[in-house]
User: Which sequence fits this backbone?
């Protein structure tokens, strides 16, 4: 299957919406959510104020690394030169070790012996903010630039550019050690743990492998050392590790939900639109009748699991019967595989019917708020219906197949006609998942951002169906034989006894499909 290029998608969007696409030298990644803008502005203002006063300028000088071991006593092994080793019972830094860091590491910076003013960048870890730490820093004429809470991923040079290559180097050091570890086994045949000396050498080698220019650029990416005239503002939040200066993952986590929100705001009203008049419903029904031989049908209904990385402390709230965390995408689909209605965000523990009952569509369907065509205007005077699988409850306007244990030849024909028309909802999910492969992975976003992304995929599916139909969507038909990726279906809760009126409506459709509305049946049916 061939999919349209990004250029084709953008061109179709531009032509359809009458907008202009102009390339700007400044990247979108510089825009931050409003909740963080004030914090970032205050941080940068503080840094700029001190830079103007003391002419701070990072030059990429690498200070000796400090390694803290989780133990009570200082190791007796030989510590290689160029690294500072400390011990702490819980394996983390406290204000006493911070004082040692200032004395043994920070004092080795250029100008450290003369106590020239300096500006280290710290995160919000408790040991960085104690009165003792501030007092020691003040004695060394050191001004602390503390990153606001929640913005380490945008303002911490170590997180932005340095930690990743450092960890890669550490993994390589460990791999080389493991290759040689077969000669150093315990009597039980297990690999002995590495010595403290070996670990120190791993850290030293990895630290020496970090290029000086990476350190310099990491500060510019965080907006800490950029030129004052604005000529280096385009470096902010860009990924300096790649040659094409692609946007960093931290910025993408902001840009993508914002872009999806904008697409939803502009396109949803035109491209996911539920019919609102009997005439519009009859247009949808005529497509089902012409293409799938099912009259008086307003759409096919189904739900799928969208795999997610669960939010913190969510427990089993999103855990589904298939054994993974998910949210539910519920949709009503037309005969052309377009989404007429979408609901996303319900937790994965719920069944099809449970999710459907909580949607606005179900409420309007049961209370008569959809303005469906009256029976007198429909084929054979039959009620206007929607199609679903056996997980949904049978009602006057919602048809589901007969269970296998009660099948007769006439009911088997009804089930075939219903399944044949209902396949459009499965095809729509499969086509969308093929185009937007994100839906086949575990999405690691906050819940509200996740809902934006999934809803945006549904809108763009309809948009591309309209403006790039031949390229985006292969022909759909009984013999098309589409093989598409599948999203996981929902759990089928046991249905209750359907109302008598609903059973009568279904029986009337059985009579029609075996009488005046009969069509040639495949041999295997």
Assistant:
């Amino acid at each position: 299957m061939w999919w349209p290029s990004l250029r084709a998608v953008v061109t179709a969007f531009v032509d359809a919406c009458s907008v202009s696409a102009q390339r700007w030298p400044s990247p979108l990644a510089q825009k931050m959510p409003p909740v963080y803008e004030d914090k970032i502005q205050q941080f940068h203002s503080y840094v700029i104020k001190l830079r103007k006063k003391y002419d701070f300028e990072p030059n990429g000088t690498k200070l000796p690394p400090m390694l803290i071991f989780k133990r009570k006593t200082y190791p007796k092994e030989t510590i290689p030169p160029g690294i500072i080793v400390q011990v702490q019972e819980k394996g983390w830094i406290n204000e006493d070790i911070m004082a040692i860091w200032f004395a043994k590491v920070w004092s080795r910076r250029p100008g450290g012996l003369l106590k020239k003013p300096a500006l280290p960048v710290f995160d919000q870890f408790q040991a960085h903010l104690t009165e003792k730490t501030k007092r020691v820093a003040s004695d060394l004429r050191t001004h602390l630039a503390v990153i606001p809470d929640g913005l380490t991923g945008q303002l911490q040079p170590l997180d932005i550019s340095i930690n990743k290559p450092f960890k890669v180097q550490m993994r390589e050091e460990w791999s080389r050690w493991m290759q040689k570890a077969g000669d150093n086994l315990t009597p039980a045949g297990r690999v002995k743990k590495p010595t403290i000396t070996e670990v120190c050498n791993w850290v030293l080698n990895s630290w020496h492998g970090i290029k000086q220019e990476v350190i310099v650029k990491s500060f510019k990416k965080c907006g800490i050392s950029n030129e004052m005239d604005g000529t280096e503002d385009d470096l902010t939040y860009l990924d300096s590790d790649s040659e094409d200066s692609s946007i960093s993952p931290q910025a993408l986590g902001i840009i993508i939900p914002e872009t999806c929100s904008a697409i939803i705001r502009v396109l949803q009203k035109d491209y996911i639109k539920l019919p609102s008049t009997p005439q519009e419903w009859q247009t949808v029904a005529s497509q089902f009748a012409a293409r799938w031989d099912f009259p008086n049908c307003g759409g096919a209904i189904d739900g799928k699991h969208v795999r997610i990385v669960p939010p913190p402390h969510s427990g089993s709230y999103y855990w589904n019967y298939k054994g993974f965390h998910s949210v539910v995408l519920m949709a009503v689909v037309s005969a052309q595989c377009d989404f007429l209605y979408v609901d996303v965000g319900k937790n994965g523990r719920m069944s099809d019917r449970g999710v459907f009952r909580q949607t606005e569509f179900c409420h309007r369907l049961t209370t008569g708020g959809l303005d469906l065509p009256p029976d007198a205007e429909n084929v054979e005077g039959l009620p206007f219906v929607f199609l679903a699988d056996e997980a949904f409850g049978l009602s006057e306007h919602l048809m589901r197949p007969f269970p296998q244990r009660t099948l007769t030849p006439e009911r088997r024909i009804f089930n075939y006609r219903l399944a044949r028309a209902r396949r459009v909802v499965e095809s729509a999910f499969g086509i969308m998942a093929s185009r937007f492969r994100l839906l086949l992975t575990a999405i690691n976003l906050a819940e509200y951002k996740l809902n934006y992304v999934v809803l945006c995929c549904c809108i763009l599916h309809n948009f591309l169906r309209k403006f790039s139909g031949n390229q985006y969507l292969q022909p759909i038909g009984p013999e098309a034989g589409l093989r598409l990726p599948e999203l996981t279906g929902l759990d089928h809760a046991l249905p209750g006894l359907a109302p008598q009126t609903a059973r009568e409506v279904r029986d009337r459709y059985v009579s029609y499909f075996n009488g005046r509305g009969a069509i040639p049946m495949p041999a295997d049916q």
Summary: The domain at 28-243 is CATH 3.30.420 (Nucleotidyltransferase; domain 5). Confidence is low (pLDDT under 50) at residues 1-5, 18-30, 240-245, 475-482. The chain is about 40% helix and 10% strand. The first helix runs from residue 6 to 17.
